[in-house]
Amino acid sequence: MMRLDLWAASALGVLLWPCWTDAAEPPALPPAKPPAAVESGESPAPAQPTAVDGGEAPAVAEATAPATVLPTPVISTERRRRFNLIIAGVSTLLAAYTADRLLARDLSQSAASWVPLAGPWWILSEESARPNPSSALQALLVVDGLVQLSGLALTITGTFLRFDRVVLRLPSAPPLRSSLPAGSP
Prior knowledge:
Layout lengths: L1 H20 L13 H6 L33 E8 L1 H21 L15 H11 L5 H26 L1 E8 L16
Antiparallel strand pairs: 1-2
């Protein structure tokens, strides 16, 4: 059943692909009204014939509206820090340290066991010095120390690695002129 749905969706995509990729020409715009005709509300005068086959061109040229010049957008690149790596690294380091302190606080009375990154290795050395060490506890302390180190490595990597981001800055649009009189609501 699933393959039939996938087949139907891909067949529909193949059928519609030419419609999506054809570049449609923009619709032709009607000729612009001269500024005097726009203000008075008149329709534009019909276009006068041009010189064809050696005839003379009309003496009076049509008044055309001045072309509006739009400012061009600016493309630039920005170098940014990788904040996602910094956040992931700090979160990993803090989560591992918090779990270490909640679960292993009774294993050592030394103040060195409370130091992040060094605490699991300190407790591991104390556990190894006992006459009957627990291999499961030692494995968990090694994993805890490695997770804390990986959190620190992610944080440092995110701090120093940067990425280039392409930015397209569009100029601000000119203010719109209102066609309403100043006193109307």
